[in-house]
Fold this protein.
Amino acid sequence: MSLFTRLSEQPKDRIIALMQAFHDDPRPHKVDLGVGVYRDAQGQTPVMRAVKAAERRLWEEQATKGYTDLAGDAGFRDVMAGLVLGKARDAHRMATLATVGGTGAIRIALELLRSAAPQAKVWLSDPTWPNHPPIVRQAGLAQASYRYFDEAAGAVDFDAMMNDLGRVGAGDMVLLHGCCHNPTGANLTLPQWQEVAGLLNERGALPLIDIAYQGFGDGLDADAAPTRLIAQNCPEVLIAASCSKNFGVYRDRAGVLLALAGDAPTAARTQGNLTALNRLAYSFPPDHGARLVTMVLDDPALRSDWQDELEGMRRRMLSLREQLATELRARTGSDRFGFLAQHRGMFSCLGATHDQIDRLREHHGIYILGDGRMNIAGLRADTIPMIASAIAESGI
């Protein structure tokens, strides 16, 4: 028997499968609300103006494609630490690592946990990003879940969340969504974040914050406020940040892992371990997207233009949320979809059954994940009335 014949069939990624089904659908008026990428009013995922300008400058000025550093370019790690943590950044207790996107940061964070505490359990919100559970399994770590979302209310079930986190063991990792929760779009308030920090400290747990959508919710600083609160209140913290969404560099795979330790010597030891994990995983991390992000954040004019365009993207998604909630109110005669206007970020959950999701796809060409997660950024003002009618007709 050959080696390859011993391999087991792998389950299809449901997001990738939905992408393929949408691609194969010949209907001209089909709508993709499944894949988690930002789209503008023309349905395109644009290259942001400041990123395009930085890329032109890089093409003119870059004199080498030589390696940077095993931990990634120091300038990129520094500007990302500043963007995410602001005044909460403490260089004396920090280790940083450039990674292959935010997903790479999460994987390295899990590898670090396995190196230090292989028996630790990773706690994930229910629901969470579909890729979180398989990444934890592939890293060889045990996992558990904590309740997060009250589907009937369309809001965070904070009491249930805190009740479940009360069972977290010392040394366990708790993965938290820094802002714009994926898939629900429902976020904790800052006072609730403060309670979470207190409980994690009481239980001796390690927070891992996945912040993939900074700037898409309530603004750059407001979206980072929960992460900064955890950084200032917990003795050890891991933060996985992605540049894919807020800089639009999806295919360039720019991300960073920030680790906050209890003191400078521990931070230095952590830095050595993170750098070694990069070496073992892919040696040197990619630099092109990271270099563009650094150039944008380091140049006042480019940074200002980037922030203006990002703010426009954020406001557009809020407008789409409000329009969809209004159209659904008119068609259903109720406000049960009012939560759509209250949520933040790219996603919300409709609270639909698999049969209802199937009907949306089969009868109306509307593609949504089977759990009801809808990509708000896939909406367009001219298609919202049709989509609202289809949702109302489906009985959701």
